[in-house]
Amino acid sequence: MPDFLALDPTPSPLPQGLSGVYSQVTQWIAGLVNSSSNSLSQIGHSIASLPAQVQVSTAIDTTAAWHLALYWLLVLVMVVGVIGAVVPALPGITLIVGAMVIWGLVVGFVGLKWALGVAIAALILSFVIDYLAGVLGAQRVGASNWGQIGAFIGMFFGLFGLLPLLPTGIPLLGLLIGTVMGAFIGEFLHRRELKLLQRVKQSAKVGLAIVVGTLVGNVLQGILALISLIVFLATTWPGSWA
Q1: Contact 232, 95 (CB under 8 A)
Q2: How far is residue 155's CA from residue 161's CA, in Å, rounded to a whole number?
Q3: pTM for the model
Q4: Per the count of CB atoms within 10 A, which of 27, 70, 110, 181 is most buried?
């Protein structure tokens, strides 16, 4: 084998100037690695000692924040339920009871006994009020089933602004006018045995009685819904469970 192909395994010594620089760079790198290792070790020990305090506290704070957000969202739903108790054809106290049940499922029904009991009692009373104010009130003026069915149909069309005479689409205005018109038309079609003037008077009386009874019943239901909301806020205010 020629001499120029022979490989010498022994590295050539560095020049004297480069040897000093190489030694200093090596020492600096070794010191940097040791310093980094010590810092990482200290950080690791610090992190290992925190989870039992910091992580649990963070989880508790996050849960409380979600509970608080859900609480006020359900309160907003209950406010809509109070409005719905006054406005016919909209969910009222039923919405309030449903919101309370959702909150009870989240917190295990803690401190919810009084509020839920009042809301359920208000819901039962609202059905009784509907019957007394609507059916019995109309029957007192001799309203027939035609008049009551007509009032319901007129209320539906008036609420959604579907009547040709109500282009404004204002729900409350359409509700009142639609109910009166529906009750009047239904009663008028049914009382064919009466003379024209008597039919008009009877139909107008039925329409007015149904509307007045409905309004009185809705006001009473709104009061019950408001009481249910106040009891809920008084017994489950965030300070008592947060």
Answers
A1: no
A2: 10
A3: 0.62
A4: 181
| Residue-wise burial string across 218-239, b where 16 or more C-beta atoms lie within 10 A, e elsewhere | bebbbebbbebbebbeeebeee
The first and second tokens of residue 222, run together, are 């709104």
* Model confidence pLDDT, tens digit, residues 78-126: 999 998 888 766 778 999 999 999 999 988 888 888 899 999 999 999 8
CA dihedral 95, 99, 105, 110 (to 10 degrees): -120
Integer Cα distance of 221 and 92 in angstroms: 8
Domain ranges of the chain: 57-240
Tokens 């509307």 -> residue: 211
CA distance 156 to 150: 10
Beta carbons of 209 and 141 less than 8 angstroms apart: yes
Please give the DSSP secondary-structure letter assigned to residue 98: H
What span, in angstroms and rounded, lies between the C-alpha atoms of 45 and 62?
Answer: 26
